[in-house]
DNA sequence: CTCTGATACAACCATTTGATTGTACGATAC
DNA sequence: GTATCGTACAATCAAATGGTTGTATCAGAG
C-alpha cells in the first residue's frame, strides 16, 4: 500500500479543490461513471474552458485522472484521495480525543499521567 | 441530534477553511486546548491581524468558536464540523460503491437490476 | 484530403484571498 | 484615573481564483 505522506501543499490543494460546488459535483459523477470532458462541460452553465479549468484543479489535487479514448478524454474520480482526506480528518478527531483523555485522567487521580510538562 | 443540512455555501466555506496550513494548525491546537487569540498569534510568523483573520475564516466555517474570558478571547475547536466534513466525504465513498454494485450486477446476470434507464 | 468534434492553452479581466499597517476601544493592572 | 494588554476593524496591496473569448491542435468521419 502506498502511504506517501501528503505535503502541506498537497493537503491545501486537496481541500481547496473540494471547496467548490461544481468541482464536488464533477467528482461525484466521475466516481460513479467515467465521463468525457465535453459531456461534463455540457452539464454546467459555464463555458467549456471554465469546466476544463475545474477539471485541471481536480487533477492537480489528484481527485480525478484523465485517460484518452479516441479523441475524448475520459475523466475518472479517484476515491483514494477522498480516503486520504478522510484520514486527515480522522487525525483531528484523535487529537480531540486526547483532550478528553487528559481530562479523564485529571478527574481520575491527583497525579496523573502528565509526565514533564 | 441536529442534522441541519449544510448549504453548498457552507460546504465551500468548510473545505476552504481547511485548505490552509495555518488554519489547520489552529484547529488542531484548539481541539486539544482552548487558546487565546494572542497566544495563537504569537505562534506564527505573521502579524497579529493576519492570525485574527484566519480565526475569523475558521469561525465563519464554524470550525472554531470564541468565548470571552476577561479581556481575552478563548478559541475552541469545534469537532462537530469536522465530523460533518467527514460525513460529506463518506457520501462520496457511497457513490463510488454504487458503481461497484452496478458492475457486480452486470457480471452476475444478463438482465440485471437496472430497471428503466 | 477535408471537415468537424473534442480538447488544450493563452490572454485577459473582475473578484477574492492573504497579508500588511494603523487606529480605536474595552478590560485589567497599578 | 492612567497606562497597557488584548482585541477589533478599516484601508491598502499583491497574488491567486474563477470566469471569459480566441486560437491551435489532434483524431475520426465522409
- The CATH class assignment of one domain in chain A is Mainly Alpha
SSE-based structural type of chain A: mainly alpha
- Helices and strands of chain A, in order, run as HHEHHEEH
Please give the oligomerization state of what you see: homodimer
Question: Main sheet of chain A?
Answer: 3 strands, antiparallel
- Overall residue-averaged pLDDT value of chain A: 89
SS elements, strand count of chain A: 3
> What's the shape of chain A?
elongated
Greatest contact between two chains: A-B, 31 and 31 residues
CATH fold assignment of one domain in chain A: Arc Repressor Mutant, subunit A
CATH superfamily of one domain in chain A: Winged helix-like DNA-binding domain superfamily/Winged helix DNA-binding domain
Strand order in the largest sheet of chain A:
1-3-2
Low-pLDDT parts of chain A are 111-117
Any idea what the CATH architecture of one domain in chain A is? Orthogonal Bundle
**Percentage of β-strand residues of chain A:** 5-15%
Distance between the amino and carboxyl termini of chain A:
37 Å
Brief overview:
Chains A, B: InterPro entries: ArsR-like_HTH (IPR011991), HTH_ArsR_DNA-bd_dom (IPR001845), WH-like_DNA-bd_sf (IPR036388), WH_DNA-bd_sf (IPR036390). The structure is a homodimer of 117-residue chains. Chain A is mainly alpha-helical.
Task: Please tell me about this protein's structure.
- Chains A, B: This is ArsR family transcriptional regulator.
- Chains A, B: Residues 3-97 form the HTH arsR-type domain.
- Two copies of one chain form a homodimer.
- Chain A is 62% helix and 12% strand.
- The first copy, chain A, is mainly α and 117 residues long.
- The first copy, chain A, has a domain at 8-78: Winged helix-like DNA-binding domain superfamily/Winged helix DNA-binding domain (Arc Repressor Mutant, subunit A, Orthogonal Bundle).
- Chain A has a three-stranded antiparallel sheet.
- The two termini of chain A are 37 Å apart.
- Chain A binds a DNA duplex (30 and 30 nucleotides) through helix 3 and helix 4.
